[in-house]
Design brief:
By secondary structure, the chain is α+β, with helices and mostly antiparallel strands. Helix content is 51%, strand content 19%.
């Protein structure tokens, strides 16, 4: 190979390296600048007037979706700058998308579940719920998972697909809740017991008059006595205050009135 050929090949190699180097530098610049722009855009969208009125669950979901869409645009831009033919990219993406879709059926189910949760709204961020063997306050809803903080401050991440297929109990959705308690007494003075229980319920300032008045009635016989059911309506934020107050006040008042618990059962054995 003569000197001229070597020189020509060297010149071509330099041109290729220079061109490729410029493309790589541009791609890196686009990546760096793109990430900065995306962060500023996301921050700007979050501060748009009216966004504070959007439901937190919807806002979180939309922000996650917007972020993913922006990064997809960024990646396509980088590929385009590198000179990769878009037809080839689309073919590869379509093939990869099919393979990934089959491999990530669970993730797609979670994504679809998240959309359904936003449409039907069985709960909002801040609600106390019980679902999919988890109970706690909803802290976050993203594209694939819902984050729940339990009452003892554990964090549970539940797939949205699982939530959509589960029975969901929204404990705090309604403004009012009913405190239901059961007390067992000897059954010797049913009218007196009922009077004492109603007095203690009505003495609680946080107990409401409706949707039904305070309730105390015998519901079933038990060995050695009678089971009484009591009911009191309260605002949802007052539920536990009234619950614990009645659990303390009613047994104490029954004892002061001389109404005790169920009588002990005895087995009589006869000799034959």
């Amino acid at each position: 190979m003569d000197t001229a050929t070597i020189s020509a090949w060297g010149s071509k190699l330099i041109d290729i390296c220079t061109s490729l180097g410029i493309k790589i530098v541009l791609a890196l610049l686009i990546l760096i600048i793109g990430r900065i722009v995306i962060k500023k855009l996301l921050k700007g969208v979050g501060k748009i007037k009216g966004m504070d009125k959007v439901d937190p669950a919807v806002k979180s979901f939309l922000m996650n979706f917007f972020k993913i869409a922006l990064y997809i645009v960024l990646v396509i831009s980088i590929i385009s700058v590198l000179g990769v033919p878009m037809a080839s990219v689309i073919t590869v993406l379509a093939t990869a998308g099919l393979a990934i879709g089959m491999a990530l059926q669970g993730a797609l189910a979670n994504f679809a579940g998240g959309i359904m949760l936003l449409i039907f709204r069985p709960f909002n961020i801040g609600d106390l719920i019980s679902a999919a063997e988890a109970e706690g306050v909803v802290k976050e809803m993203n594209l694939f998972y819902t984050v729940i903080n339990t009452l003892d401050n554990r964090v549970i991440t539940v797939p949205n697909g699982t939530l959509m297929g589960a029975n969901i109990t929204n404990i705090t959705k309604e403004d009012l809740r009913r405190v239901d308690l059961t007390f067992n007494i000897s059954g010797a003075d049913i009218a007196g017991a009922r009077k004492v229980m109603l007095e203690q319920i009505e003495a609680q300032e946080k107990v409401l008059d409706g949707p039904e008045p305070p309730f105390a009635q015998p519901v079933e016989g038990i060995p050695g006595g009678m089971a009484f059911s009591t009911r009191a309506w309260v605002k949802k934020e007052d539920y536990w205050d009234v619950y614990f107050a009645l659990m303390e006040a009613i047994p104490k008042a029954l004892g002061e009135a001389g109404i005790g618990g169920p009588l002990p059962a005895y087995n009589i054995v006869s000799d034959k």
